[in-house]
Amino acid sequence: MSSGGASLTPRNPSGSSSKVNGSGSGGDRPKSHRKRSSSIVVVQKIEQSQEELLDQAAGFNANADWVNHKGAWVIHVVLILLGKILLDVVPGMRQDASWTIVNLGYIAISYLMFHHVTGTPFESNAGAYDQLTLWEQIDEGAQYTPAKKWLTSVPIGVFLISTHYTKYNLGLFALNFGATFFVLLPKLPLLHRLRFRLFSSGGPPGGISGTNSPYPSRPNTPAVPY
């Protein structure tokens, strides 16, 4: 006690006075979470329910089973040769240009048919294949089957032939190689049932489960009283 009757302020052993509502620790500050911003590329994995798997096993998929029938493999060669003959009829058509057009045409048709269109034109499967492409329906999704090996080797063979007849021209080679790589990429088992979507903004897209980021990029803006 001092002579004037004023009480002394208790001090910490370190010599500094204690702070009740100090802002140094920030331990009691609630953390905020912001939603993920828009992404350029979003990868979606196609998952199927148990009911869809049972429907696939119970029914006959006429949309994909024709690939294993006799003559289904030969038709690719027939269409390629037919397209080549039709192009050769055009006056002034060169061999390098005709084989490049055949290669690009076959790749465009095969990609649209096997990797772009989903579902089946039939209603006998109760919508079990609505989310799957024709490539994913072949052999019930099994990899490295004879049909899939054949469908993979055909664009490679057409690419090699077109490269030979273009006399390894750099521009035509890059065009044919890029197109062939584009159609072979979705055939890889690593990309089975994956969907790539560009410029997806906002929250998680349909079918993709997303969570907020646990680490806020910046603290909340303090409220300004009016």
Automatic annotation (TrEMBL):
GO CC terms: endoplasmic reticulum membrane
Domain of life of the source: Eukaryota
Keyword set, alphabetical order: Membrane, Transmembrane, Transmembrane helix
Compartments in which it is found: Membrane
Its record classes its membrane topology as:
Multi-pass membrane protein
Q: Where exactly are the transmembrane stretches of this chain?
A: 71-90, 97-114, 168-188
Region spans: Disordered: 1-40, 207-226
Bias type Polar residues, positions? 1-13
Q: Which InterPro entries match?
A: ORMDL (IPR007203)
| UniProt-listed PANTHER family | ORMDL PROTEINS (PTHR12665)
Protein name from the UniProt record: Orm1 type endoplasmic reticulum protein
